[in-house]
């Protein structure tokens, strides 16, 4: 029953995106927007992903979300902002993925150089990161003009080795590193450690900024890009316009 419902969600095109801005800490201007999967009726995205994986339709779900995000993001916003889109490792190494990207570029040629694919280190797909095909597909995306972000990297030697071997354009740290940042010396030192490994060509993004104090601390540490509810919750584009965030 779950499989039928999920396939109908994709067939009836009730998947859509909400967008959350990433702010440039140096000037408080919006640098990019991240597209986040939503459904009507509302279903937890992680629940959808688990069901899709267990029923063999995860690639279909992920590529539908990617195409929806690209299609829903206005042409005028692409001119001045990047679009961050989540991409599962299993989708990246799927045998149809290169054809999907080529077709996407044919339909939406203006996205070249403006889309950032966020690769999440999902525990269920951790082994894919060590495959040769994974690295080949990352290089394929770069050759097509896409940017790469590593999302939710753990604090481990392997993370820094991946950053050195692949050189993503962005590295994102999740809310566990930012929550209570203003009064946690350990978290401040951790963020500073990642800042030592990043630069203008590999920018650090700190997610989960939920208070003014944490925002100020992140700026003082020199984190270039910030994201979180204090800046803006994920919203449909029309709501972002009304809130004057676009």
Number of helices: 12
Strand order, sheet with most strands: 1-2-3-4-5-6-7-8
Number of strands: 8
Strand content: 15-25%
For the termini, the CA-CA separation is 40 Å
Overall shape: globular
Alpha-beta classification: alpha/beta
* H and E order: HEEHHHEHHEHEHEHHEHEH
Helix content: 40-55%
Largest sheet: 8 strands, mixed, barrel
Report the oligomer: single chain
Mean pLDDT over all positions: 91
Gyration radius, rounded: 18 Å
Query: Could you list the spans in which at least 5 consecutive residues all have pLDDT below 50?
Result: none
What does this structure look like?
This protein is of the alpha/beta class and 246 residues long. It contains 12 helices and 8 strands. Strand 1 and strand 2 form a beta hairpin. The longest helix is centred in the N-terminal third of the chain and has 15 residues. It is globular and about 45 Å long. The termini are far apart.
């Amino acid at each position: 029953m779950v499989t039928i419902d999920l396939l109908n969600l994709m067939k009836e095109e009730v998947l859509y995106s909400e967008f959350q801005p990433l702010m440039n800490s140096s000037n408080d201007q919006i640098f990019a927007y991240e597209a986040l999967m939503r459904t009507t009726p509302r279903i937890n995205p992680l629940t959808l992903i688990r069901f899709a994986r267990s029923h063999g339709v995860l690639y279909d779900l992920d590529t539908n979300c990617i195409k929806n995000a690209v299609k829903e993001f206005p042409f005028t916003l692409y001119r001045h902002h990047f679009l961050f889109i989540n991409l599962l490792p299993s989708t990246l190494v799927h045998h149809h993925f290169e054809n999907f990207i080529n077709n996407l570029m044919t339909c939406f040629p203006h996205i070249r150089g403006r889309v950032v694919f966020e690769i999440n280190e999902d525990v269920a797909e951790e082994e894919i990161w060590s495959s040769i095909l994974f690295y080949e597909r990352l290089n394929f995306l770069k050759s097509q003009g896409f940017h790469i972000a590593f999302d939710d990297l753990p604090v481990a030697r392997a993370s820094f080795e991946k950053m050195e071997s692949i050189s993503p354009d962005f590295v994102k740290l999740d809310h566990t590193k930012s929550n209570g940042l203003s009064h946690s010396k350990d978290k401040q030192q951790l963020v500073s450690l990642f800042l030592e490994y990043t630069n203008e060509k590999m920018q650090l993004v700190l997610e989960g900024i939920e208070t003014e104090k944490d925002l100020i601390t992140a700026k003082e540490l020199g984190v270039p890009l910030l994201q979180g509810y204090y800046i803006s919750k994920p919203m449909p584009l029309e709501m972002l316009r009304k809130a004057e965030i676009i």
